[in-house]
Design goal:
By secondary structure, this protein is an alpha+beta fold. Helices cover 15% and strands 36% of the residues. It has an 8-stranded mixed beta sheet with strand order 6-5-11-1-2-3-10-9, sandwiched between helices. A 3-stranded antiparallel beta sheet has the order 4-7-8.
Length: 193
Amino acid sequence: MLTFTDKQVLDRISSLPTFVGFPSGPMDVWIRSKADKFDVFDDKAFTYECHGPDKSPKFVMAREGTTNAGSYYLVDHFADPRGCAVLKSDTIVYDSHQFGYHHQKQNNPAYVQTRPFPYFRDGNRNHRAEEMPPEYHDVIGANIHHAGLNTTVIKNWSAGCLVTANLSKFQAFLLYMRSKGYPALTLCILKEW
């Protein structure tokens, strides 16, 4: 994946049709790799602290992960007969996630989807997560959570969630969010440009 400056990332977000200003609170920006390597954590997540439209967001941390499903759900076991969920890129949804628990398990803290985020269903099993019409718009449990200690293969860690590959990096993200009182999180997904 290319390396982007904060200015490039923020300018790209500002150009989105769904952008109406930077939020007051944290924002997670996930950049989806053009390469879209099958079953590989090749996307990047960047957390920013935002203070509304009049102040530039401040970079907090980066982590590696995925915005795509792994082989288990993308090819082998559809959770929905229409195909695997693929969240729409080049989109921002304000306050889309709240602190909670992935699969409602108390030992699995996460940021859970609480507002609709646009997505597609990919049912062709061609080893690529593709944004294929029609577009859907509802809450599907596309949570922000972690994989294993230092996971390299997505497999069944994601059925359309945003998953951090490294546990300690995700714990650092949660510690930061806790230091802010677990506020709502704005999610933006960008396609690598």
